[in-house]
Amino acid sequence: SFKKIRILALLLLLVAVAGVSWWEGLWVRGWIRPLEVAIYPINGDGSEQAQAYIAELSAAQFDEIGAFFTQQAERHRLQKLPGMQIRLEREIATTPPQLDSGARSALSAIAWSLRLRHYAFRNTPFWQNLGRIRLFVVFHAGEEGKPLQHSLGLQKGLLGVVHVFADGKQAAQNNIVLAHELLHTLGASDKYDAQGQPLFPEGFPDPDRGERYPQHSAEIMAGRIAVRHDRAIIPASLADCAIGPKTAYEINW
Hints:
The strands form three sheets. Strands 2-1-3-5-4 form a five-stranded mixed beta sheet, with helices on both faces. A two-stranded parallel ribbon has the order 6-9. The chain has a two-stranded antiparallel sheet with strand order 7-8. It has six helices and nine strands. The chain is an alpha/beta fold and about 250 residues long. The N and C termini lie far apart (about 50 Å).
């Protein structure tokens, strides 16, 4: 019947999507060619400030991220990191779907990931982006005292939604968030507790070296510098961050 044909077609589509995701992950995490990252800017609040900031964007603004990966690869004695190519793509007019902060079920997360993939399919070239990480960077003018929406990185599909401030003074902080979500797409996990405190040992850049506190840099997936057991501070830039042993293992270094 027609219904059975539709179900079969849907199952074949899901198998094809799963197969492509598996191949992409294997290819990218093999580190056998330059890591390609496409940044798609989006005006997240329709503000003139965000629009003006996007108009002045250049790929050079994200060079710090590539330099961070190269430096950290050397730190982990990875001899031949093939490099990173970050491309600034055209602006996208529509905002990506958001995962409801109150929705914690696996079903809601799966539904959101499917909506995000559909969004990516409709707004970016499919073939051109195979084996390429796509980061949808949503710029906001921001309000004092009001936090931005939570950024998310998706390993299956190599997709990320990154919320940042449309402010030159925040450029270094924005690159920290971008690098963090980029690492999520490569398989890295968060390494902080419910209070935002870095977890020991995985949330420390050098857990086996010297005294535990204070740390002098932030494990990038912990996001903060642990200065004592109940206090952690936000790093000023990627120069104050590092990739720790567990994150290096997770991304296949």
